[in-house]
Every structure is written in structure tokens, then in C-alpha cells.
Amino acid sequence: MVQRKVLFWSIVTALGGFLFGFDTAVISGAEKAIQQLWQLSAFEHGFTISIALIGTVIGAMFGGIPSDRIGRRQTLRWIAVLYLVSAVGAALAPAWIPFMVFRFLGGLGVGASSVTAPLYISEISPAESRGKLVGLFQFNIVFGILVAYLSNYLLANAGDHSWRLMLGVQAVPAVAFLLFLLRVPESPRWLLLHGRLEEGREVLRIISPTTVDADVAAILTSQARAGQESESLWAPQYRTPVLLAVAFAFFNQVSGINAIIYYAPRIFEMTGLGQGAALLSSAGIGLVNFAFTLLGVNVIDRFGRRTLMFVGSVGLILTLGLVARAFYSEQFTGYTVPVLLFVYIAFFAFSQGAVIWVFISEIFPNAVRAKGQALGSSTHWVMATVIAFTFPYFAEQLGGGHTFAFFCVMMVLQLLFVWRYMPETKNTSLEQVDKALIMH
Q1: How far apart are CA 100 and CA 89, in angstroms?
Q2: Per residue, what are the HEC states of 390-417?
Q3: CA-CA distance, 118 to 154, in Å (whole number)?
């Protein structure tokens, strides 16, 4: 019964990830209709697609502030409101500028949820199942992307305003998210950090009744060691988790994952596939991503974060190296490159995809966890924006060979990073991780 409650809270919070994935992908079905409707130039069209990404970067940078000030739960409720207003507003937008404003608000929701949702789940999860529960967030992102593509496909022939339905249907999960959050308690670590001892103890009693006193003592000791809750993330003792979070988020994106997801049809056409086959291959990428994220989330607590990252790094190096070789030698017979990229997506989803939000949410102490999560998340989104903007240029100027060779070299560096610097955090309480990583 206790575990079922924690699972329910985690699933509800991970709905923020579903809306994150849905919001990111749904625009792909509407973008052509929007360009024609408002006669947008190439620049205006590009800006329209990327405005949500700009909102995401800002939401990620500042998402830690409300999480610290008003609490994790209250911040999640405001995120649900942002998703709802964005979905309804974008669907009903009478002109281009209001549409842009509503898409920007949705982006703020995506960025803030990538900070607050993993943070909240990590703070309510028992140590032995924390990886799986926080991993639900990433799983729901991938699930949201898949549902958005399916929804767009089903609504494509719904008349002249089908794009409005595509964007508006997001209001349904947004309302569900908002209502379910009414049954979710505040994070016990946030409550204890703000002097609300009895409330924090009550939530911890639901999570782990046998260890509640030890948990409260460990959290309060960790807080006393950290000093004031307003302490700067840039204090010398936090150097190790800061470097780990930034490096992890950096490597996540220089693997080329967003370039491949955003530009899959273009990459497949570069190898000589027809447009229809290229689009079909892109749908396949979504399914592989979904299946292997599910696998990674299910084994992360058994094998550990480092093991998944070792396996993934080796797989990414091999697949990216073979894709680069295919471009250099122009050996594009059959489905060689699409198959290699499917295997690449499988390795990524199993490792980086499943691990990133779990690992970053674990390595910061309670006093600065929200700020640390915001740092890792905003690094991830800034790098995602840079890669997405520069990939078409570099692919055209340097060719596929050099571009994929660069991603391959970055994954060699990631392997070295995992081997030399990445600590294992499985089956360890957040306070024990804090003790191991913070220089006191």
C-alpha cells in the first residue's frame, strides 16, 4: 500500500514529462499549415518553430527558483496551468503573434517541468527504486512524443483547421495533470528544509514507515552541514556535483541525439532513400526510442547508472563510427544507415536517455538540489538548441562523414568521463550521495 502511493505520486508527476514530449513533437504536424495560413517567411517560420525551445531554455534556467520558494508541488501545479493555457491559446490563436506567445508559454512549462518533476520524484523515492521512479519522467517524454505523432496522424484529415485540433488536444492531459496533482503531497525534504518538521515527517512515514526517524535525522544533518538554504550553488564544496551535471548534460547532446531525431528524414534522404521510406524510418526511430527507454528504466536500479552508461557509450561509439564510415565511403546500399541509426537510438535510449534525469536529480544536496537540477537542465536545453540550429549547416558544409565522426569522438570522451569520474548512485540515499560528493 505504501509503495503504491509513492508509485502513484511518481506517475502523476511524470505526467509533466508526457506533456513535455507531446508539446515538443506536436508542432511537427501543424507547422506547414501555420506557415501557409499566416504567409510566414522562412525566417518567421523558423522563429515560430523555435519559440517554444527558447521558452524551454528560459524555463529550465529559472525553474529552480519557484521550486525552492513556493515548493515542488505548487510549482508543478503552475506548470500544469502553463501547459493548459498554451494548448488552448495556441489552438484558438487568431493571429501569428498571439500564437507565438502561447507556444512560448508552453516552452516555459517544458523547461520548468524538466527541473521540477525529476527533482520531486527523487525526493519522495526510496533509494532502492529511485532510478526506476525518476526514469518514469524520461519514459513519459518518449511516450508523449509517440502519442503526439499518432495524434497528428489521426487528426491530419480533420478539415481545414486540423492543426488547431492537433495543438488543442493537449488540453486533455494538461487538465488531468492539474487534477491529479491535488492528490500529491509536498516533498518531505522541502518541508524539512523549511522548518515544517511534522508535515515532512508525515510524508516520510508514508514513504518508509520503518526508517522515518533515521531519514529525518539524516536530512536534518545534511541540512546542517550545507548551511543556509539560500547558499550559492557556486560555493567551493559543490564543485564536484556542478561539474558532473554540466558534463553529463553536455555529453547528452553532443551525442547528436536531437540532430538525428529532428532531422531523421533529411539524414535518410542524404543516403539515397526516397521521401516515403525516409518518413517511415523516422516513425521507426520513435518506436525504438520508446522500447529501449522502457528497458533502461526497468534495469537502472538493478545494474546501476554507470553500467548503463558504459554499455551505451561503447554502442554509440561503434554505431556513429560505422555511420561516419558509410558517409565517407558512400556505401549506402539498402538500409545500412537507417539500421545503424536504429541501433544508435536503442543504445542512447538505454543509457543516456534513461539515466540523465535520474543522475542529475541525485547528485546535489537538499539545500541546492533545485538550483543544481536547473543548471543541468538548462545546460541540456542550451546544447539541444545549439545542435539543432547548427546541424543542417555543418552537414551541408562538412558532409555526413565529418559530422558523424565528430559525434563519435565526443562519445569516446563520454566513455572516458564515465570511467574516470562518474560515481555510482544506485541503492544509496540522497543524503549518502551528498556525503560522498560534497567537500566539507
Answers
A1: 10
A2: HHHHHHHHHHHHHHHHHHHHHHHHHHHH
A3: 31
Residue type, 299: V
Residues 111-155 pLDDT 10s = 999 999 999 999 999 888 899 999 999 999 999 988 888 888 888
Interatomic CA distance for residues 15 and 26, integer angstroms? 16
With beta carbons less than 8 A apart as the criterion, state whether 307 and 353 touch: no
Alpha helix segments (H runs only) across 70-170: 72-92, 96-124, 130-155, 162-168
Amino acid letter at 85? V
Cα–Cα distance, 157 to 259 (Å, whole number): 29
Q: What is the DSSP letter of 438?
A: S
Cα angle at 334 between 332 and 335, to 5 degrees?
Answer: 90
The grid coordinates listed for 301 are: 536500479
Cβ-contact 373, 115 below 8 angstroms: yes
What gap in Å lies between CA 49 and CA 406, rounded to an integer? 26
Compute φ and ψ for 175, nearest 5 degrees.
-65, -40
Are 119 and 361 within 8 A, CB to CB?
yes
Query: Are 254 and 409 spatial neighbours (Cβ–Cβ below 8 Å)?
Result: no
Instruction: Give the span between the Cα atoms of 249 and 379, in whole angstroms.
Output: 6
User: What Å distances lie between residue 239 and 29, 100, 437, CA to CA?
Assistant: 43, 38, 9
Tell me how far apart the alpha carbons of residues 9 and 183 are, in angstroms, rounded to a whole number.
8
Report the alpha-carbon distance of residue 322 to residue 64 in Å, rounded.
40
Residue 213 binned pLDDT confidence (cut-offs 50, 70, 90): confident
Instruction: State the Rg of the chain over Cα.
Output: 22
**DSSP codes, 159-200:** -TTHHHHHHHTTHHHHHHHHHHGGG-PPPHHHHHHTT-HHHH
Provide the grid cell at 229: 538554504
Length of the chain (residues): 440
Element at 362 (helix H, strand E): helix 354-362
Instruction: Give the pTM.
Output: 0.88
Q: Write out pLDDT tens, residues 264-285.
A: 666 777 777 665 565 566 677 8
Amino acid identity of 211?
Answer: T
